[in-house]
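PT: before anyone asks, these are the final sequences, not the draft ones from last week. 396 residues across everything. Please model them as a single complex and drop the result in this thread when it's through.
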Amino acid sequence: MPTPARTSVEEIVAAGTRILDEVGLAGLTMQAVAAHVGVRSPSLYKRVRDRDELLHHIATATARELGERLDDATVAASATGSSEGAEPAERLVRLAHALRAFAHARPERYRLLFTPPANTLGPAPEALTDAVRALLETTTRLVGPEDSLSAARTVTAWATGFISMEFTGAFRLGGDVEEAYTYGISRLAAALAGPPAT
Amino acid sequence: MPTPARTSVEEIVAAGTRILDEVGLAGLTMQAVAAHVGVRSPSLYKRVRDRDELLHHIATATARELGERLDDATVAASATGSSEGAEPAERLVRLAHALRAFAHARPERYRLLFTPPANTLGPAPEALTDAVRALLETTTRLVGPEDSLSAARTVTAWATGFISMEFTGAFRLGGDVEEAYTYGISRLAAALAGPPAT
DNA sequence: ACCTGAACACCGTTCAAGT
DNA sequence: ACCTGAACACCGTTCAAGT
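LR: through. Structure below.
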C-alpha cells in the first residue's frame, strides 16, 4: 500500500546546506539531515545514493549561488561606472572581491566547492563553468577571446590560493590582508592586460 | 612494575605518513596506525593526544620534507646556470615546478599542508615558514627585500590555487596543464619584477 | 511506495585491570 | 609505566518488516 513521500531531494539538500554552514562538514551527518527534514536516516537513501552524493548536490547548488553573487558584482560594477559599464580591470577587482566575500560568508561551502576532500566529487562541471561565466566575460574584454580562458584560470588560481592561505592562517604574521588582496588583484589585472611575457 | 615502551612518537608519525600516502586521509585510522607499529590503538594515546595531533605532526614533518625539496631545486638551479647561480626568475620557475612535483608525488600530504580540513590544525607555523625560505630568498633577489614577502605570497597563492584546481579537475577541458603552469609562473615572475601597478 | 527499528561493520576515545 | 580488552558514544549503510 503506497505511502506519501514525507520529504524530497530539494528539502534534503537545503537541510544539508544549512547544517554544513552552521556546524561544518563533520557535523553534516545523515542523522542530522534526517532529523532536520523530519525523517529517520535510512529514509534518506530513497532520495540520495549516499552521503557523498548529497555533498555533490550541495556543491552544485553552491556553485549556482556563487554564480549569482558574481553576476550581481558585475551588475554593480556596470551601475557604478560610466554609462557603458565599468572598465574590465575594475570589473575584475569587483569579481575577485565578490568571490572572497562569498568565501568568508560561507567558508564551509566555499571549501566544498574549491578544495573538496580527496575522494569527494565536487560540483557538476557545468555548474562551476556557469558560476565563473561572469569572470570569463570580463577576461575576454581584458585580454581578448584568445587568452580569456587562461587569464580566467590565472585569476581563479591566484584568488582561491590566496583565500585558502588566509583560511589556514598563512597571513597570521603581519600586514593588512584586505589590502594585500586588493593590491594583488590589481597587479594581476595589469599584468594580464599588459604585453606578453619575455 | 614498569613496562618497556614498544613504540615512539617518531615511529607513529612515520607510520601515519606512510598510511596517509598509501590509503588517504580517510584510511588513516588510529587502528591502522596501531597495527603498523605493532600495538593496540588505545596505546597510541600515551604518545599523541588524539588523531588531530597526529595529523599536526605529519603536517609538520611534511613541511620539513617539502622545504628540503625546494632547497634542492634552488641548488639545481645554481648548478645549471652560470658560475654565480641562476637568475632569480629562473629560480622562481624551478621552485614552482618543485612545489608542483611534490604535490603530484604526495597529494595527500600536500593537501594536509595547504588545504587542511576545516578543524584540523596545519603544520607548526615555523615549519611552513622554513619550508618556503628558499622562495623568500628568491623573491628578495627578484623584487628586493621591501616587497619580497608579498611577492612570495603572491607566487604561493597562485601556485597552490593552480594545483588545487588541477586536483579538483578544473582543467579537465582542454589545454596542456604543464604548459599553462610554466606559462603562468613565467608571466608572474615578469609581472613581479616589472614596474609597480598603476 | 515509502518509512522504520534493528542490525552490521566500522570509527575515536576512555578506563579499569593486568604486567 | 606502559599495554590491553572491554566498553561507550558515535558514524554510514543495509534490510526485513510494517503501513
